[in-house]
Structure prediction request, 161 residues.
Amino acid sequence: MRRAQADERKALRELTQHAQQILEHAGRSAGSTVLDKISSTLRAAAVDDAGRAALKAGRLTGEVKPSGFDVFAGLELPAKASRRKAPVADDELSERRRRKDERESKRRDLEQRSRELAVRAEEDAQKADRAKAEAAKARKAADKSRREAEDAAAKLEAFEP
Prediction:
């Protein structure tokens, strides 16, 4: 586990340094705040399905915020889990906390859904662009065939046996 964490830190450090070089080459500011955001976004995107897909496709266009316990998604629970009961909301404060937690959970779900839909929209836009190019190519071929057919018809009409 420590080896994997060390590898992850090394990869993040290298990617962040590469981003710094790209920013500097483009004449943009590569201050510590920007680099921290880049590193944080890469770390969060690596554990988020939509973020990971966007990274893999080279289409990560904005910050990805860490969301809750997604970091632990791949871990297995011990065979013998404790059987504690969930605390009962017996006063107003705990009820407000529960509602706040529910709202936060809903917000995270909506953020993730939004990221997933943004990735899907980008993929669909690319498909549409490819289809448009294919349609233009087919239209050009059809126009050429129509001209050739008209030329052949004109030659046939002008032909005297």
